[in-house]
Please model this.
Amino acid sequence: MRKEGKMKEGEDVSPREKKIQEIKKKLIEEKAVLLAEASTALSSLSDEVGSPEMGDQASAEVDRSLMLRLKERERQLLKKIDQAVERINNGTYGACEACGEEIKIKRLEARPVTILCIECKTAQEEEEKLRE
Model:
């Protein structure tokens, strides 16, 4: 696995590295979309005018609460995207943080922000089920 984030001119790039650079591009695009959607949602929240009817106010509050929960999930995803791009830049992307093994490219393509290989993720989920 490469430890440098940037490729040198004339350097041969492995198929895995090419895929990782494609993933990086997709992550950056996804971040831009999420930020644009968040900006639109925030402006629509501030544009809402309170209705004098109690039923309308309650409905609007439920909608607002749901939207804010969704935005919190998106905020967490943005943080994970930034962390994944940073790992790509510093050459540590694609290594499982639990066992250190290389995460398969298909898993990275399916879940680009992942930090665990499928084996470690499965073990983590089984441990969580036992704690419940």
About this structure: Residues 14-93 form a domain with the Four Helix Bundle (Hemerythrin (Met), subunit A) fold (CATH 1.20.120.910). The chain has two domains: 14-93, 94-132.
